[in-house]
Design goal:
Elements (H helix, E strand, L loop, with lengths): L1 H64 L4 H29 L13 H15 L1
Helix pairs in contact: 1-2, 1-3
Amino acid sequence: MGEILHLLLAFLFGIAFHIFWNYILGIGYGVMAFRTTMVDTLFILAKNIQSAYEIQQLKYMSYELLQRDEKFVEFQRSIDEKEMKSLKDTVIRNYINSVPSKYNSLIKFHDWETAMEYFNTALKERQ
């Protein structure tokens, strides 16, 4: 009877250890997947912002070809800069707000500049 009790306890301990081990591995895999996804998302966001800057440059080149007034071009540049800053801040704020609360401690940035610093550091670590 004592041998059966020992076997039963060993079996139950094995089940508890298995559950605990899978939980710890799940957390680790989740954190690694989140970090990879965060860097990939920042890459996509940076590429989109870069594309917007390139489109703005094409717009300014077309203004030059159309011989628009310099004051008009400068006014348009100042508007575009304000809109781009607003876009960057909104994109990062929306990204941070979309992250589940249990992963909030993994986000090491709060605005566009710190997001790009984090992105550059993460890219250097990957290489």
